[in-house]
Amino acid sequence: MIKLTNILIITLFFLTNYLHANPKIDAKTAILTDFHSDEVLFELDADLSIYPASMTKIMTTIIAFDLLNSKSISLDDKFVVSEKAWRLSQAGYSSMFIMINDQISVEDLLRGIIVASGNDACVALAEGIAGTEENFADMMNEKAEEIGMDNTNFTNSSGINDPDNKSTVRDIAKMSKYLIKNYPIYYEYFKEKNFTWDRTGGEPISQGNRNPLLYKNLGVDGIKTGHLAVEKYSLASSIKKDTRRLIGVGSGFISPTARSKQSIKLLSWGLTNTQTYEISKKDETVFNIKTWLGKKEKIKGTTKEDVYVTIKKKDRRHFKVFLEYTGPIVAPIKKDQKIATLNIFNRDELIRTVPVYSSEKIKKQNFFLSFFTSINYMIWGDA
After folding, report:
1. Which residue in the list 89, 117, 260, 263 is annotated as catalytic?
2. Which member of 41, 143, 184, 233 lies 3.0 to 4.6 Å from 32 by CB, making a disulfide possible if both were Cys?
3. Quick one: pLDDT at residue 201?
4. How far is CA 29 from the centre of its chain?
């Protein structure tokens, strides 16, 4: 990611390299987004309704992470395994292989969900948190609404086949970003390649992470696979290179091999063909603008949000950022007063505007100083 600072008019001039057109992704639906700018870099029927399968488990972990952050539960808390949870371990689904009446820690259940994709662990965690899986699904849907997953409905904690358990790759990308952004410590679980659990009444069970991209040495560090016969193969993945992160989601891959290859193709295309620029950071000084009749000669301008823009590399020489304001800024100036606007252009098209605010309060000069400043300006101008 490239950082741009302390420039009033910014134009980037680069030699344009040969860059590939949008990739052909062999999937039913797919999307690629930039983590920092939120911009969609590629999409293929991204709002098509799908069965999210085990990608549902991303939300299951989010609910637990929320409760861990609020200290409503702890990683050491233990939940008792019900018959319902145990039956899933015996039904041929991906499992942690828990036993009835086992008492299992929240941390082991989370790792059983994330690494081993255990459906039984999902139910045990859901029941331990909410009493029933149905109650837990209500919590999942409330969170989905909060995140802005407008086309999602959860009916269970694991993603096993249910015609009413639906989502889209766009919503799953939003959910994935939410998890990575808000729970960075717990997100570390998603890159674990193995999980060994000392189960009750048997030898320890060791299972590898089902995310195939973790083993490719590409910089992928999550997030979740999925598979249902009706939906075929799916994957939400995230890749980090230097300070940049991309999130890709695809569903309807015809095989595990295709899922892996096509997901790599999508992520690699994004890194090769697009670039993200840091325009400003929240509450950090972006510009110093002259004041008129103020007790300070300049006012510091800041933005209220981190501002990133992602463009295709072939458009770099057409990318410009202008600071627009009427100046000098007349005192008195209130803190958080809007004083300017950042106008961001690509190929002469305005693609984004960002308000710039004063970072401090500046009082007006006293009457006599203001008078002499005005007289000096009338005689000598802005010298």
Report:
1. 117
2. 41
3. 75
4. 19
